[in-house]
Amino acid sequence: MEMVVEDRMNGLWVIMLSFFLAMTLAVVSLPESLPMALGYLRPDWVALVLIYWVIALPHRVGIVVAWSTGLVMDVLLGSLLGQHAIAFMIIAYVAYSLYQQLRMFAIWQQSLVVFGIVGLNQLINFWIESIAGITEWTMWYLLPSVISALVWPWIFLFLRFTRRSFNVT
Asked: Where are the domains positioned within the chain?
């Protein structure tokens, strides 16, 4: 009994650390010498980590974790409270709905699905910001979904290696 509790706690800190690293990468600003448009070339780190954990451990990471992570991102980015929470809940739901199929896909096929899911996340965030009158449409909004799809194989392999190394179940 004690070993089971220890394994679950071990897995919890690995999951939390991966979200912490993703949030750190999401909020680190680019050097001022670079053009602001390069910020659109960043993958959506938090969404990628969320998608991975929902696919890998749907019984541990789901809608509640997505909502909590989204609220933390709203605070970190200074966005409307609930904006990322809603978007992350929706992408967690989509990933959870598809997790059995996604596990069977090759990594390049998963990348195509990740492109769609992260694109949905970007569109939801844009929609919320446009309703609030914060932003106007530009095609740059969809670029992070392309970059996220290109980065997905490395994120997937790294997190799978980490999950297996620390026996996260």
From this structure: 2-25+42-165
